[in-house]
Recover the amino acids of this structure.
């Protein structure tokens, strides 16, 4: 069974700290992968494949401080805004247990930033793109900055096709107000859909959930991957079955 | 590494219990597999002119003497070994206990929830395995390895064992012995000086490595030398480290302890957490139900709503971890770091500290006990999060609300 096959949507309403909704796996106590709190602070993490591909890994399973999932839980428990989250991250001694990650944090005021460490874990990067979309995949944005802004699709064409695809599709809609349908379609365009080799013992690579968090409304819609099955309309082909979008709110 | 592979690795950790070795001059073999990579290839050398190579019998006799002698090896009739087990590359760690009794009863218990807390037993007749609380009989089991007096009976149990030559194993010189074992040859590497057994490995008929165990940190228990550290490497290069903290002889062990738990037997072990998962009562739990998927799907998602003090929330989460996933408290890998880490959380993140207090209560431990790391409840492992995320600011969306769009992928 894959590590992420039994996730929890954990809703906490503690007597101290903000209420929160978070999708969790690995660590039942603090294992946040993405989530939102009652103040609208929204958090997620992504593996930074480029960092460990190029520079190797230095996992710390007995680190002192907070691991990456504990760090996201800290933000949900204690921070209301992006500015508070930046401060908390700068003040927190952080380590990663398995592989390096970076975070994307947003708040109800329309602010967002990406948090990254350098390859030597000696410098923190806070990357923003005010009033513009902020895209993050599995490479270090800080290594390809366009001035102080995130890289353009052209800059990272050879680094990550998903980033380029998302950036180009959004750029093609310049000047338009983006609908939820477009946003969902945009995410489907970069979903993992490679077929599972026949007889393969492992599950195929799949996008586990499509989540849309709306910080202003303290709400989320999530569609979960369920299984691959034979497509009755296309004999011999496999189709991906997902749940409907389920809606959750902290209000 | 797949969870299945990890389970296989744990289920095969038997040999370490059965191969005591002499302390000798070297505290550790002269090589390392700590990186989880293949050790350098060994080189066979010819005996020097005038140096008569020992016979197979002489090597095995020296091995018995190195262990403490035949009389010492025959003295105990049971053995209990306790320690920690760890897969450093993926951050998985837990406890490992081995119970052995004459003539050939053996039980290995690994407490590691992500691996299903596997138990492997052999009562001299039937071999079995329990994972995720489900028991099945093992039709293939290395029964010879369960012999309590294996070091005394290598020649008898492996009648086709042969001396293949003298080799270098890192900085050490070793004699390599080999038995064909139905096409999957097993190799033993004995230190030429001390007589220590430094390595055992199994290969397939093509010569590819199936498993390897390296033995380190030899210490005496009742006149018998045991390697207190075993490093296991399997065919996908995953390293598992077992460190024993306690080895006792002649502990009374009921024969029934090694029998297959009949009431639970039968069938393949299903996923540990399904709709049939036990209903768990705790005053902080407001809701705990499946909201998507199920036992037949890849995913089964539960919505867990908790309300109360942070101590109550921590206690409720630990109760779920304990009852649904059979999680046990995580032994500290380093008590000093555990103490300092707990102090950091107490000062910088008191909410988590209060939840840890609840975890301690659920497990019947003291929060201040450095022997336990209570800051995690790892019920699955191998974190590899995230795929693509886009934040759309309010000015870009149709309804004027910012949207964070997240797509994590399978790991």
């Amino acid at each position: 069974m894959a590590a992420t096959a039994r996730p929890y949507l954990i809703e906490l309403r503690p007597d101290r700290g903000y209420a929160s909704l978070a999708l969790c796996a690995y660590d039942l106590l603090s294992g946040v992968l993405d989530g939102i709190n009652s103040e609208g602070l929204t958090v997620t993490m992504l593996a930074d494949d480029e960092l460990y591909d190029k520079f190797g890994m230095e996992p710390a399973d007995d680190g002192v401080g907070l691991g990456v999932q504990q760090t996201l839980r800290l933000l949900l428990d204690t921070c209301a805004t992006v500015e508070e989250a930046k401060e908390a991250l700068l003040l927190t001694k952080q380590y990663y247990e398995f592989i390096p990650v970076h975070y994307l944090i947003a708040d109800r005021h329309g602010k967002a930033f990406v948090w990254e460490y350098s390859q030597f874990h000696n410098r923190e990067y806070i990357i923003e793109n005010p009033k513009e979309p902020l895209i993050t995949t599995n490479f270090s944005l800080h290594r390809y900055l366009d001035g102080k802004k995130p890289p353009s699709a052209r800059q990272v064409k050879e680094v990550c096709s998903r980033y380029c695809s998302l950036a180009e599709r959004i750029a093609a809609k310049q000047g338009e107000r983006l609908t939820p349908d477009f946003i969902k379609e945009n995410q489907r365009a970069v979903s993992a859909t490679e077929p599972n080799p026949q007889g393969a013992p492992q599950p195929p690579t799949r996008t586990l959930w499509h989540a849309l968090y709306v910080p202003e409304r303290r709400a989320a819609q999530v569609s979960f991957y369920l299984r691959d099955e034979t497509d009755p309309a296309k004999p011999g082909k496999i189709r991906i079955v997902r749940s409907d979008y389920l809606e959750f709110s902290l209000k | 590494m797949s969870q299945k592979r990890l389970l296989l690795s744990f289920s095969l950790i038997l040999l370490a219990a059965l191969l005591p070795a002499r302390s000798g001059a070297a505290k550790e073999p002269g090589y390392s597999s700590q990186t989880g990579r293949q050790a350098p290839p060994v080189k066979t050398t010819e005996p020097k002119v005038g140096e008569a190579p020992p016979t197979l019998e002489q090597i095995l006799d020296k091995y018995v003497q190195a262990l403490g002698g035949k009389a010492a090896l025959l003295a105990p009739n049971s053995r209990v070994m306790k320690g920690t087990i760890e897969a450093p590359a993926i951050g998985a760690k837990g406890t490992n206990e081995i119970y052995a009794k004459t003539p050939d009863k053996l039980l290995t218990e690994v407490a590691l929830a992500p691996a299903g807390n596997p138990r492997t037993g052999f009562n001299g007749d039937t071999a079995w395995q329990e994972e995720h609380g489900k028991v099945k009989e093992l039709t293939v089991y290395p029964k010879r390895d369960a012999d309590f007096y294996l070091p005394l009976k290598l020649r008898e149990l492996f009648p086709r064992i042969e001396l293949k030559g003298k080799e270098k194993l890192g900085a050490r010189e070793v004699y390599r012995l080999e038995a064909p074992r139905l096409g999957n040859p097993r190799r033993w590497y004995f230190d030429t000086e001390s007589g220590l057994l430094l390595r055992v490995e199994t290969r397939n008929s093509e010569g590819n490595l199936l498993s390897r165990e390296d033995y380190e940190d030899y210490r005496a228990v009742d006149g018998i030398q045991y390697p207190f550290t075993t490093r296991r490497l399997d065919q996908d290069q995953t390293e598992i480290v077992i460190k024993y903290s306690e080895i006792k002889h002649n502990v009374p062990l009921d024969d029934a302890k090694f029998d297959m738990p009949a009431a639970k037997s039968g069938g393949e072990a299903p996923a540990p957490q399904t709709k049939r998962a036990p209903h768990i009562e705790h005053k902080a739990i407001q809701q705990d139900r499946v909201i998507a998927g199920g036992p037949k799907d890849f995913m089964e998602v539960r919505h867990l709503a908790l309300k109360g003090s942070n101590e109550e929330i921590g206690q409720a989460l630990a109760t779920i971890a304990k009852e649904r996933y059979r999680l046990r408290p995580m032994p500290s890998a380093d008590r000093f770091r555990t103490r300092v880490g707990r102090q950091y959380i107490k000062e910088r993140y008191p909410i988590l500290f209060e939840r840890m207090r609840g975890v301690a209560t659920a497990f019947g431990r003291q929060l201040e006990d450095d022997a336990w790391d209570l800051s995690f409840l790892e019920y699955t492992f191998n974190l590899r999060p995230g795929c693509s995320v886009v934040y759309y600011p309010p000015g870009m969306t149709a309804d004027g609300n910012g949207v964070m769009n997240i797509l994590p992928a399978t790991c």
Residues 8-249 of chain A form a domain with the Penicillin V Acylase; Chain A fold (CATH 3.60.60.10). Confidence is low (pLDDT under 50) at residues 197-202 of chain A.
